[in-house]
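ok trying this again, last paste got cut off
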Amino acid sequence: MRINNTLLLFILLLCHSMYSQGDLVKTLRGRIMVDGDYVAQVNVVNQTLNLSTTSNEAGQFNIAVKEGDLLVFTAVNLVTLRKYINEEDYLSGSILVEAKYNSIALDEVVIKESTITAESLGIIPVGQKKYTQAERKLYTATSGGGIDGLLNSISGRKAMLKKVVVIEKKQAAYDRLIYLFEDDYYTDKLKISAEYISGFQYYCVEDNEFVAAIESKNKTLIKFLIVILAEKYKKVNTDESVN
């Protein structure tokens, strides 16, 4: 009888531990994206715990949650999004939120003096490519003729700036890639071990075609290429382990 009572007590304690685990409050890391871009200044409210925060320039936010809590995401230019924290979100400790822009119909548009730009005046073409700081420096170095162009070539400044531009593009592609897929996509779909996920992501951004797909936000091409790169990466690792 004493053994049965002890066993029953153990089972009750085990059940209590299992059912109460989701009630514990923990910090959830999240990131908000719209059409492949990170979104800042989005209000994130945990209505269950009456807590709130705001996403940063990289679309990131941290907020305390427990399983079953309701998170509400709002911004002036976004469609309000509501999400309940399920068991998978709670256990992983991170979520990726994909929001949508809110289309607002305007009855009247008033152009103020402050809205006049070089594009609206026709000084530069509308939609002209925006260059990064490294790309602007490279353009200055390579477009300059005469003695300036010669000095830049001799000093190797052009070559250095070209390398910086490439590194910038790879870093930007990597920053986007790490939030495009969850870890289980790499382990279950691509069969990449969890400890090699980060290394594989760096391997991907060494591929120029893949980087171009990231830049163009072509999700279909990204998924197609990443499967091919995964097979190549696994083969490289296998060959290295054999040698």
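PB: full thing came through this time. Residues 130-163 form one domain.
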